[in-house]
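Table 4 source record.
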Amino acid sequence: MIKTPYINPFSTDAKEIVSKLGQVENLDKRNDSLMAIVNHTRGQNLSDPHTLPETLKDLALARFEWSLFRKSSEAQEKKYEYLFNQEIYEYDVVSFYLLCQAVAIKYGPNSHETKLVLDCEEDIISQRLELLKSESTDFQSSFLRKALNQMIDTNNIYWTELKEVIELGKLDLNELLLSDGKVIIEYEDFIAEYGHLIYNRDPRTMYEVTAGVELKSKLLLSLIRLYTKQYIETVYEMSKRMVEPNQILLDLADNIKEVQQKAQSLKYASAGSSNYIDDEPVKYEIEAFPPCVRKCMDGIKSGGRNDAIVLFLTPFISYSRLCPGIFSKQEQMMKISDIDPSLEITHNEIIPMIYDAANSCSPPLFKDQPQEKININAKLGFGMHTELKLDHEGETQWYTPMSCEKIKLHMPNLCTPNIDCKKIGNPLTFYNRKRRIMKKDNSTQQVKKDGD
């Protein structure tokens, strides 16, 4: 039978497990019981025993690795099959808290590393909830009810009490079934509120369609993410009063950084054959910008300011600085923090350049349409928010630059092609080609100069 801590690390049982097994001196010691569970997990790849966790610290790092590497191959997935063996739940809970403490102490609650740990926990619990679907609907509903009631009262919760959950962007207010502000989660409450309105239909089916297991799963996932975030914040504040953090946690934090860097290298390794593809941030070369970008940066003096700045310029300015070679990669579903973890480049260079162009418009774009700052954040992948924060990243997609064809169709006033635009399909392609030509010309001039 599935244990609640396997899904909810903030349950009462989970906290008791941490008290029993979470002694610091045991975190980096060989654990034969853990190893036995790993080795006897059905489908587990045992070909490389050195990669299997022997300690709770190893298990914590393995959770993080799985989340970052899980899309690489089927063989990679089998490498971490033990994470989805229900028998591991006790050690899994301890390793979860160990992971949270490591990033809290070393990197802080607003770091990229913390966001990756939040994503990691969400990924793992999501996968486990998928496995739960093999059980009957009644079992799922009952199990989720128990897990949720360790965090909220599912028979008496109002949407205003879930504001922090909704602000995470994982659960929309429109997805909640409300009655006078009360969130209808359980079947008996659904029947009490709406049973008299249901005719010639199965009430249970209606409940599952409007709320049911799907809502409970989403709500549980969001609550776990919120509680994890709050726990990391608490540990961070407590760490300020520490004389010296535990070395095991500091070592784990360093390991996390190494895994993150390795995953980034693998994920964004170039798939193309060009020798002029940038896989990392590069300095702007304004002289290589295409005519349409230069025109937009000078300010749009007629209609179409919104589309020009938000839809056209924002993606170009961000990708040309952070990842000009995006179109030559296998993986194009990128996030800005994968390249600019602290968002320092984004805040200090990308946003100012976009805002300068917006202020150059006539009239200045934000003077009469300040909401476009929110839309700019959305196009950068940070959701519909007034501030650009890591917490919001992933709520929307980081848009790639528009093609020349779309620019001609939707913003013809921007398209004033020159001779270098020939056979170019995207402004970013123009930029990369122009930079390559400029580099070649500079090298030729340097050779001539040296020859003289």
